Amino acid sequence: MARNHQKPAQVDISVRRMDFAFTDIPRYWALNDPVCTHFLNALSLTFPDGERFFVDSVRALRDRVEDKVRQKEISGFIGQEAMHSKEHETFNQMLEGQGYGPVIEPALKLTRFLLTRARTMLTPKQMLGATAGLEHITAILAQRMLRDPRLIEGLDPSVRALWVWHAIEEIEHKAVAFDLYQDVVGSYWGRVRLLLAGSTGLLGYCVRYTWAFLKADGLHTNPKVLARGLWRLFGWNGIVSGVIPDYLQYFRPGFHPWQEDNSSMIARWKEILPQPSNAAASATA
User: Fold this and answer.
1) pTM for this model (two decimals)
2) Residue by residue, what is the 3-state secondary structure of 117-164?
């Protein structure tokens, strides 16, 4: 299918090896809020195995594309997602060191069970459609974060670079899986159905393990903590509720991720990132 939008030329899907070291991390590192912190902690638990699922989904059908520029974008996507898996594994190990092992072990076990089941039940084309939908979710959450400097400033400096780096790269490669899906499948109803299934599952998972983290802290029945945190997530222009207009864009038949050009925004935020340990890291093709 012909694409009516494409990635801006100034956006480079390059692989940055960051090797973050997480030391002296406060327990409530996001907005000094237990609910917001643990929602993002729960999201982080999905990344290592989830990103590998995305990579496998794209890699399985990349041979359908002959264009060298597109192949370079796919290689960049694979390399970036591999680095995301690596860094969030380290982040999740830090959470274990904070005493959350009893929460993390069953959460990771469930993630692997669900993804194994998806690999068994879905065709390669459906896996790619699910990846395109979930990549839309990660991209709009990244955009939500980078649009509001108060959210970035509310992240403790010890973890801020991780989340800014991840957000930048999610936006840089936000159309790679979508474009491949359009080339290989192109089914509107297929991509919408898979978005709905993926987003329902992801939200349910994050709510479940946000609650488990809060229970581990003895805060799951504290009405003040819950009310404040839930408002920040789901209230007016919250972290999650604030992405609803962007989420709904996916349901337009003519949707394309780069209809919103975020290139100037990610260029600004790149300036705060630490220097990669290997800026020219090669993608795992």
Assistant:
1) 0.94
2) HHHHHCCHHHHHHHHHHHHHHHHHHHHHHHHCHHHHHCECHHHHHHHH
